[in-house]
Amino acid sequence: MEVKFYDEIEDNKLKYAVIASRYKGQWVYCKHKERDTFEVPGGHREQGETIVECAKRELYEETGAVAFELIQIGVYSVVRGDIETFGMLFFAEISELGKLPDMEIEQISFFDEIPEKLTYPLIQPKLVEKISKTLIK
């Protein structure tokens, strides 16, 4: 498996939005109800939705964020064998969290560093590292 970064790609190829987020100086990670691991907020783009709309929706659904600054970082892809899927990487500085919607996420947690028990350990650390190098000095 390989993670790649691109300057741009055709919009219709963007299937996911991933939103690495911070709240009060800590990274925000989600724990899905069906897993014992943590993940960066994000998810699949719905039909008719822009990638920015997808990012805003997923950030709210997975964290309860109601006020935030959203910054588009760039296109990433995950290559598995002969298949390459594309997503847009975002960074969000969350200023206000509301109630966590009763959906697929059981809880959110805050970390100074990337947690050890990740749902996608070969992908998400590379995405957070990209944001750290780009934005967080």
From TrEMBL:
<keyword id="KW-0479">Metal-binding</keyword>
<dbReference type="GO" id="GO:0046872">
    <property type="term" value="F:metal ion binding"/>
</dbReference>
<dbReference type="InterPro" id="IPR000086">
    <property type="entry name" value="NUDIX_hydrolase_dom"/>
</dbReference>
<comment type="similarity">
    <text>Belongs to the Nudix hydrolase family.</text>
</comment>
<dbReference type="InterPro" id="IPR014078">
    <property type="entry name" value="Nudix_YtkD"/>
</dbReference>
<dbReference type="InterPro" id="IPR015797">
    <property type="entry name" value="NUDIX_hydrolase-like_dom_sf"/>
</dbReference>
<dbReference type="InterPro" id="IPR020084">
    <property type="entry name" value="NUDIX_hydrolase_CS"/>
</dbReference>
<keyword id="KW-0460">Magnesium</keyword>
<dbReference type="InterPro" id="IPR020476">
    <property type="entry name" value="Nudix_hydrolase"/>
</dbReference>
<protein>
    <submittedName>
        <fullName>NUDIX domain-containing protein</fullName>
    </submittedName>
</protein>
<keyword id="KW-0378">Hydrolase</keyword>
<feature type="domain" description="Nudix hydrolase">
    <location>
        <begin position="1"/>
        <end position="137"/>
    </location>
</feature>
<dbReference type="GO" id="GO:0016818">
    <property type="term" value="F:hydrolase activity, acting on acid anhydrides, in phosphorus-containing anhydrides"/>
</dbReference>
<dbReference type="Pfam" id="PF00293">
    <property type="entry name" value="NUDIX"/>
</dbReference>
